[in-house]
Design brief:
3 helical TM bundles of succinate and fumarate reductases; about 130 residues; extended
Length: about 130
Amino acid sequence: MADVNRGNRPLSPHLSIYRPQLTSMTSIFTRLTGNALIVGALLAVWWFVALAAGPDAYARANGFITSWFGDLIMFGSVACIWYHMLAGIRHLVWDSGHMLDVERSELAGMAIIIVSVLLTIFTVIVL
């Protein structure tokens, strides 16, 4: 039987000793933005269903979506769309076997963060 008395050391790396890398954080953030996009999509579907349901339902849905909280959710959705799309392109590049070394991988991570912020600001200002 295995020795169960292993001392005071952790059985696996713990958050107190693990330093997250940029590539792991951008990968986690890609998953989070994908899930956040579901919220924006559900709001858009609610808005279209309310449009078909009649003027009262549409007024309620439109009032929520155009409120400050709805604007915040829509702004976040635009940021999530840009980030998720750029991260998906990065993963396609990785799948083709390119940019897999640490330096270029981290450079791509920083690039998708910066470009997604710039594209979000551009989208909100122009559109």
